[in-house]
Write a structure and sequence with these properties.
By secondary structure, this protein is mainly α. The chain is 44% helix and 7% strand. The chain has four domains: 21-94, no CATH class; 177-243, Endolytic murein transglycosylase (Dna Ligase, domain 1); 246-333, no CATH class; 335-441, no CATH class. The termini are far apart.
Length: 475
């Protein structure tokens, strides 16, 4: 404690009666009994007494209160043994308190104001003050962190609201018309998936929530013609009404040409669509495929062979778009662009090869071999030599033709691929053109009336194949 004896364990000395004021100055310099002891034997100095204190006032020296000793003039001596015991008992507590205070104290202790005399330092209050400051800092940091989190959540919420609103009410005009087939028994989530795949809506999850919140339904199965980028309200209304009634079905076999498909359309009763209208839609450029090169309006090769329902009120453009969409779907599944690049060809060139394979091959086992032979001939600058290309260029005439006829589709004499595909190939021919086997064949010749082909790698082998062809009256 401040002012206690540092060494020797002695009791605090008892202050004698104060000298009269006139003699106070002399006593301040040399009296032996007029001041407090300054720390026992080793102090070496005498404390200056408080000259402002009036006689008879209680003393508060050594950091103790008035009750720690007798007030001056009461005539009772200090209990020296009791004070010594108190100091001995208090010293360990002081040391422990100091250590604890050092851990909590943040250096913010301020000196007393207005020149007031130093008071004994209140360690418990100091410790409580430091702890309070730490708690206040923690509360401020927590409040700042909560503010940041709340602000981030608010921004995320605003962005999500804008995105959902854009999905439900898309900006801009509706896109191209696509065909979507909704299977019987499909859930709302499955319907949303099909619509999103076709580009009619932007997100199946938002669509599913929208249908539930609107209480819409039931959504009818069937084949629909819907525009891309449609508002959800329009899509739901169409699905609630159900698909338009099917008037007829158009069957497009593998290998059919635009000319042949148009003729089939013209023969459908009751749909009010002519062959000429279909041909114009397929070659006029109104409908396009992303795999179609710039500057080409001819959709030969892009009208996927399948059976198509023709609905009441459907136009030729609608039907052609339906067929092109179907091709685009399967081309994407086959990874047409990437596989074509791997072969160092464009998707359109691959489509030309597949169209020749479709017209030449009668058996599944011949598709890959014919494709391999075509690529081998192209790689060395040799004409493909397919009579089917010339026949296409001449309009598929009946009877024999002059193989020397000048025509851009005459690959018997012209090098390279024909200007366009010569048919609309199916999946097997597309797969053969995309993944041909490795061979050294340069010739294929029909050697059996059932359409089976023979293959050769040189001219001698080709001559042998021609002999076999003539033997069965095919050449």
């Amino acid at each position: 404690m401040p002012g206690a004896a540092a060494k020797g364990g002695g009791a605090l000395p008892v202050e004698e009666e104060s000298e009269p004021p006139a003699e106070a100055e002399e006593g301040a310099q040399g009296t032996e009994n007029g001041g407090l002891a300054g720390g026992g034997e080793d102090a070496g100095q005498t404390a200056v007494p408080d000259a402002t204190r009036e006689p008879g006032a209680a003393k508060a020296d050594n950091g103790m209160g008035a009750d720690d000793g007798l007030a001056e003039g009461e005539g009772e001596p200090y209990d020296e043994a009791g004070v010594a015991a108190y100091e001995a008992d208090d010293a360990p507590h002081d040391e422990a308190d100091d250590a604890a205070d050092d851990e909590q104290y943040d250096g913010s202790y301020e000196e007393p104001h207005d020149g007031a005399p130093d008071q004994a330092y209140d360690r418990p209050n100091r410790r409580a003050s430091g702890t309070s400051r730490v708690r206040r800092r923690r509360r401020r940091r927590l409040a700042a962190a909560v503010s940041v989190v709340v602000g981030a959540l608010l921004v995320i919420g605003i962005v999500a609201f804008i995105r959902v609103s854009h999905d439900i009410h898309p900006t801009g005009h509706p896109g191209r018309t696509v065909t979507v087939s909704i299977p019987t028994g499909a859930s709302t989530g499955k319907i949303g998936d099909e619509l999103a795949k076709a580009g009619v809506i932007h997100g199946p999850l938002v669509f599913e929530v929208y249908v539930k919140l609107e209480g819409a339904g039931p959504l009818m199965p069937g084949t629909y013609r819907l525009a891309q980028n449609e508002p959800y309200s329009s899509v739901v209304y169409a699905l609630e009404q159900g698909p338009p009634p099917v008037v007829d079905k158009l069957v497009v076999p593998e290998g059919f040409t635009i000319r042949q498909i148009a003729a089939a359309v013209g023969r459908l009763p009751g749909i009010g669509m002519s062959a000429e209208a279909f041909t114009e839609a397929a070659t006029g450029g109104q409908v396009r495929s992303p795999y179609e090169p710039a500057g080409t309006n001819d959709l030969e090769g892009f009208l996927f062979p399948a059976t198509y329902p023709v609905q009441k009120g459907e136009t030729a453009d609608d039907l052609v778009q339906y067929m092109v969409d179907t091709f685009d779907h399967y081309a994407s599944e086959l990874d047409l662009s990437a596989k074509a690049a791997h072969l160092h060809y464009t998707p359109y060139q691959i489509l030309k090869v597949a169209s020749i394979v479709e017209r030449e091959a009668k058996f599944e086992s011949d598709r890959g071999l014919i494709a391999s032979t075509i690529y081998n001939r192209l790689s060395i600058g040799m004409p493909i030599g397919a009579e089917s290309t010339l026949l296409y260029g001449l309009g598929d005439p009946k009877g024999p033709v002059n193989i020397e006829t000048r025509n851009p589709y005459n690959t018997l004499i012209n090098k390279g691929l024909p200007p366009t595909p010569i048919s609309n190939p199916g999946i097997p021919s597309l797969e053969a053109a995309l993944s041909p086997p490795k061979t050294d064949y340069l010739f294929w010749v029909e050697i059996n009336p059932d359409g089976k082909m023979g293959y050769a790698s040189d001219n001698a082998g080709f001559v042998q194949l021609q002999a076999e062809c003539r033997k069965v009256h095919l050449c």
